[in-house]
Amino acid sequence: MIVAAIGPLLMILGGLAMAISFLLTPVGLVVAGVTALVGIIIAAFLNWDSIVKYFSGAWNFFLCSSYSSI
Fold this sequence. Notes:
- Helix content is 91%, strand content 0%.
- By secondary structure, the chain is mostly helical.
- Keywords: Membrane, Transmembrane, Transmembrane helix.
C-alpha cells in the first residue's frame, strides 16, 4: 500500500525539481524578473490612490519638518 503512494509522490517531486532547476537558469531568472515586474506594475495600478496618498503625506511631513528647523 505504501509503495503505491510513493510513485505519484516521486513524480510530483521530480516535476518540482525540474521547475526549480529551470528558474535557476539565466532564462528562468529573466522570466521570473519580468513576471515580478508585471506583478508590481499591476499592484501599483490597482492601488494608485493609496500610493499617492502615502507619498503626498510623506512629502508634506518632509516639507513641514524642514521649514520648522529654519
